[in-house]
TrEMBL record:
Compositional bias ranges of the Polar residues kind: 77-92
Organism of derivation: Penicillium angulare
Signal peptide annotation: 1-20
Entry-linked Pfam families: Ferritin_2 (PF13668)
Region feature (Disordered): 30-59, 77-104, 329-352
Keyword tags: Signal
Residue stretches of biased makeup (Low complexity): 30-50, 335-346
Protein name listed in UniProt: Protein rds1
Length: 471
């Protein structure tokens, strides 16, 4: 294991930003030519973090030594409801300057703008746990992008309408993940989570692309959910510059599916525990000594009629068409041309964009759901346990773009099945809130939450989230 990064951690505060950038390409150039061609520009680049190259993808059969989320020595009973502090509303916001400028062309205010030296580290438990979660995510992406290329041949990709150049782009995405994992490891220091072994639900290229599209969506959304809450603005800056790359990956996987590339006006954010709930089931085991996480695993939520191109006609009909809870990847029979959830009209592989904006779903659509009860062992070494602090299931929360909307849940007699109706709300006029690859969860009540306090929904989550492919 390369722990030069311990050095990197302190160095990060002193060296230019470039010292945090990946050197993978430079390193390859160096090793492939032993001559003096090894460019001088690669000399100062720090190494990428090492990781196992190929672990088996099979589910974990053992029993866990440790169970449950990481906890502190003292745990409170809940976040009290607060109020708006007066200082929040005193700035006149009238287009004029109200304070002396500290320098020419420099308005007063801002955080980290007064000449203090930035230190790119974690500054609280919140920072560490959020960044560690993001690192778990980068590690699975690195493995996932390589796994699809290993498991499916060029021929398989071709049959799904994808070229060898498309494969090369996925291979490059894996390299990007090496860089992201290195960056976050350098920020976290010696106990930064290591790469684990994973288990995936897909059986063919279409399901693989759908899974990757959905996994990158919750990776992206999981980071947007906490970025602005980090104590470390320095870490937030570097993470922003990583997650925007991941957002591009997500968009490209949509294009690989023939979906309209970005039907939404705003990208959604979700709480850390939502991202961890979606991620953990795909981690089979982690190495001994692995740093554990504080986040909650909610009971799994399955969509029984996930919107997809395969569900033409009345897509409200019950289909049992997903291969996994949580991500709710659409099942595609081998040899089928149709993409996992491609937009109607473009079901033959990749498109840059399409004029066919016929949505995959519609307001008024009946959505059938099935969920688990708490107490299931999930995640690495089956060592986390699903929990919920919520009471009776009553609503479905639709978390999309900037909005959280609740619809009533009709629970069937069984108690863990039910249905709801897709809502008809807009963010701004002309922009339906429920669109793109978004999130739903079952809740016991309908608290008002907005993008900056969304995590206050957590005590009300009965099950989920599930990824809903609205468009
Ligand atoms: C800059 O702001 C920080 C945080 O408010 C403060 O701790 C520091 O003393 C200020 N001044 C300088 C020159 O760093
Ligand atoms: C689909 O084909 C792959 C090989 O490309 C195979 O591993 C998998 O089991 C097949 N899935 C089904 C459902 O037949
Ligand atoms: C998880 O299981 C693997 C494989 O059995 C084992 O090598 C590893 O030490 C376990 N990890 C932890 C954190 O207990
Ligand atoms: C679709 O089917 C559901 C029952 O599965 C029915 O309630 C609904 O009215 C149908 N919608 C349309 C548009 O046909
Ligand atoms: C749904 O599909 C899964 C696997 O495809 C199968 O095991 C299960 O029995 C099906 N359930 C229903 C209610 O059709
Ligand atoms: C999603 O956005 C597209 C493009 O604006 C639009 O055509 C479509 O109707 C929207 N989908 C839904 C479910 O509203
Ligand atoms: C309800 O039905 C689901 C799916 O068939 C099943 O997994 C679950 O155990 C049932 N729950 C109860 C409380 O009977
Ligand atoms: C959706 O979010 C926007 C932007 O925050 C807000 O103005 C609007 O009122 C919200 N709509 C609903 C239905 O909550
Ligand atoms: C979340 O913030 C909104 C304002 O954006 C506020 O109206 C709401 O009460 C807050 N929710 C909770 C649960 O505190």
């Amino acid at each position: 294991m390369i722990w030069k990064s311990i050095f990197g951690l302190s160095a990060l505060g002193l060296l230019p930003l470039a010292s945090a950038l990946p050197n993978d390409i430079a390193a390859r150039a160096t090793s492939s030519s032993s001559s003096s061609a090894a460019s001088s520009s690669s000399v100062s680049a720090p190494p990428t973090r090492s990781h196992p190259s190929s672990l088996a993808h099979s589910s974990y059969k053992g029993t866990a030594l440790t169970t449950g989320a990481l906890t502190a020595s003292s745990v409170g009973t809940g976040i009290p409801s607060g109020s708006v502090s007066p200082a929040e509303t005193t700035y006149p916001s009238d287009g004029k300057l109200h304070n002396a400028e500290p320098a020419p062309y420099v308005p007063a205010g801002g955080v980290g703008t007064n000449g203090s030296i930035p230190v790119y580290n974690a500054k609280s438990d919140f920072d560490y746990e959020s960044l560690a979660l993001a690192l778990y995510q980068e590690w699975i992406e690195l493995d996932l992008f390589q796994d699809g290329l290993r498991r499916f041949s060029e021929q398989d990709f071709k049959a799904a309408g994808l070229t060898s150049q498309d494969r090369n782009l996925i291979a490059f995405m894996a390299e990007q993940e090496v860089g992201h994992a290195t960056l976050i490891s350098n920020i976290l220091g010696a106990e930064a989570p290591q790469q684990c072994a994973y288990v995936y639900p897909y059986t063919n290229v279409q399901e693989y692309i759908d899974f990757a599209q959905k996994l990158t969506r919750f990776g992206e959304a999981g980071v947007y959910g906490f970025l602005a809450h980090l104590d470390s603005r320095e870490a937030a800056t570097l993470l922003t510059q990583s997650i925007t790359t991941e957002a591009r990956q997500q968009l490209i996987f949509r294009q690989f599916q023939g979906l309209f590339p970005m039907p939404e006006w705003f990208e959604v954010g979700i709480p850390q525990s939502w991202a961890w709930t979606l991620l953990a089931p795909y981690i089979s085991w982690c190495p001994q000594g692995q740093t554990r996480l504080v986040w909650q695993n909610f009971p799994a939520l399955k969509i029984l009629n996930q919107p997809s191109v395969g569900s033409s006609g009345n897509s409200s009909a019950f289909q049992n068409n997903t291969i996994s809870s949580g991500t709710n990847v659409v099942k595609v029979p081998n040899g089928s041309k149709a993409s996992g959830s491609g937009s109607s009209g473009s079901d033959c592989g990749a498109t840059v964009t399409t004029d066919d904006t016929t949505p995959l779903s519609f307001a008024g659509r009946q959505v059938a759901l099935q969920w688990e009860t708490p107490g299931k062992a999930v995640g690495p070494n089956n060592s986390y346990v699903t929990t919920s602090q919520a009471k009776t299931a009553k609503y479905v929360a639709w978390v999309s773009q900037l909005n959280v909307t609740y619809t009533p849940l009709r629970v069937s007699s069984n108690g863990t099945r039910g249905y709801t109706i897709q809502p008809d709300t807009e963010v701004y006029e002309g922009n339906p809130a429920v669109n793109g690859t978004m999130f739903i969860a079952i809740t016991d009540s309908n608290p008002v939450v907005t993008p900056f306090n969304l995590s206050l929904i957590n005590p009300h989550v009965v099950a989920g989230p599930a990824i809903y492919q609205a468009g």
